[in-house]
Design goal:
Bound molecules: zinc ion
Number of helices: 13
Strand content: 5-15%
Helix content: 40-55%
Strand order of the largest sheet: 1-2-4-3
Radius of gyration: 18 Å
CATH class: Alpha Beta
Structural class: alpha/beta
Shape: globular
Low-confidence stretches: none
Order of helices and strands: EHEHHEHEHEHEHEHEHHEHHH
CATH architecture: Alpha-Beta Barrel
Largest sheet: 4 strands, parallel
Length: 334
């Protein structure tokens, strides 16, 4: 028996997905409504045309938000949208699945700071600033070697300040090292890096160097450990084992301490309609998740592996959800 399991990064947005999550022992998650690319584009050409554009990103995210809200108000969904920390507690008390609305990428904000407030009223409580490309908030991981170390833009600074004031979670996964540095310098609240790992173990741009892990720990932030094989291992075309995920967790704990680690599985597959366009458009037909952790229904497999990895009960509670729930408490309104 462990404490509640909360996931920092997940894309499965249908009522049936929430049911599977909950049945498997997941108490809640940050649901990413959309990402900063159009993964459902009907053709590869349309996907590429939308890559650096801002067209219709907000509209598509609003459509998903509306659908999730509509399904959550149906009592049979047993789902609660978390707008403040007490909602998370209430969901836990009432045996409901807790959903924190978030987004993987800042294009939904356009270049208009008032849209942060508009999204707040829509129930959004999290924005991950970047996906694979830069946007008006800041530089992405793909810009890390550009001269001049591009980071957070002036608009990005405003976004951090407003999100801090309102009580929204700032997520720097996929952002350039300089963007992460800039956010950490100005934020008044702990931040999230929702799906990542150690770059020393697995040298992928999305993962973090030791110094970045320590910076996240100093901020009181949380790093969600990714379950996608190539980010766990640092190589493509090989499926990771659960012990590899535990190795990542152990490394992050050794470098940053027990308070900094959470879970960021990034499950995105399992909706056949979306799988088809996602895999084709993003050219990731070889992508795999860790064997035994390929969808939320398998989450309980992690617990014995953590025990085997030498973690005690209270450490496991923190890793699987305690640290993320602390972050939510620190950032969202009471
Ligand atoms: Zn991602």
């Amino acid at each position: 028996m462990t404490g509640p399991v909360y996931l920092a990064h997940d894309h499965m947005d249908r009522a049936e997905d929430f049911k599977r999550d909950f049945a498997a022992g997941v108490a809640g998650k940050i649901l990413h409504l959309t990402i900063d690319s159009w993964i459902e584009a009907p053709t590869r050409e349309e996907y590429e045309a939308a890559y650096y554009s801002y067209d219709r990103y907000m509209e598509r995210a609003l459509a998903v938000a509306a659908r999730v809200h509509a399904s959550a108000v149906d009592p049979s969904s047993n789902t609660r949208i978390v707008r403040c920390y007490s909602d998370l507690q209430a969901a836990s008390r009432d045996g409901q699945f807790a959903v924190i609305l978030g987004n993987e990428g800042g294009k939904i904000l356009g270049s208009d700071i008032s849209l942060v407030d508009a999204w707040w009223w829509m129930g959004l409580r999290h924005v991950q600033f970047n996906w694979a490309m830069r946007n008006l908030i800041g530089a992405s991981q793909s810009n890390e070697h550009e001269p001049g170390q591009p980071g957070l833009t002036k608009f990005g600074v405003e976004v951090v300040k407003r999100m801090n004031e309102l009580g929204m979670i700032v997520d720097v996964s996929h952002s350039a090292p300089q963007t992460i540095c800039d956010v950490l310098r100005i934020t008044k609240k702990p931040i999230l890096n929702s799906h990542s790992g150690s770059r020393k173990i697995a040298d992928k741009q999305q993962n973090l160097w030791d110094e970045q892990i320590r910076d996240m720990a100093d901020n009181g932030g949380v790093i969600g450990v990714h379950f996608c094989s190539r980010l766990v291992l640092g190589i493509n075309n090989k499926q990771a084992e659960i012990s590899d995920v535990v190795r990542q967790i152990r490394y992050l704990v050794d470098v940053g301490g027990i308070d900094v680690v959470g879970l960021g599985p990034d499950w995105v597959l399992g909706n056949p309609e979306r799988d088809r366009t996602y895999l084709r458009n993003t050219d990731q037909t070889d992508i795999t998740w860790t064997k035994g952790l390929e969808h939320s229904g398998e989450i309980s497999n992690l617990i014995p592996a953590l025990v085997h990895g030498g973690f005690n009960g209270s450490e496991i509670d923190q890793i699987v959800g305690g640290n993320l729930s602390r972050l939510i408490k620190d950032v969202l309104p009471a």
